[in-house]
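Sequence only, no structure available. Ideas?
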Amino acid sequence: MDIAGTHQFAAPRAAVWEAMLDPASLQAAMPGCETMDPTGEDAYAITIKVGIAAIKGTYSGTVRVADQVEGESYRLVVSGQGKPGKVNGDATMTLSDAAGGTLVTYRGDVHAQGAIARLGNRLIGGAAKLMIGQFFKGMEAEVTRRAG
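Reply:
I predicted one. Tokens follow.
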């Protein structure tokens, strides 16, 4: 399933870039993220608790930041598995200057297997949009916290 969208921050690009690549800020902003431990350069082991409709579970997996172009873009490669199934995702985040702040554009794809995949793309897509919205709201709080 393809995911894409934008989010506007009322902060300079450098501040948004820094927050979006800071492990503590990422963990705080990610819905359900319980742990995020470094396993190498720009690579982390994560544990996330997620519920979609009647299917709830804890996922263990990895997040890797790749293809960084300082202050402009990077890729997030995510994989995880738990009792409800497996999830793999790959997304490109692009930052650009916008009136009054920074525009983040994201584009990627998510593949689910197991019980989650049986929910169907409409329900998974709705849950993904909700989680992305929660992530950006949390990231806004992190950018503000770091600036203060």
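The domain at 2-147 is CATH 3.30.530.20 (Alpha-D-Glucose-1,6-Bisphosphate; Chain A, domain 4).
Hope that gets you unstuck.
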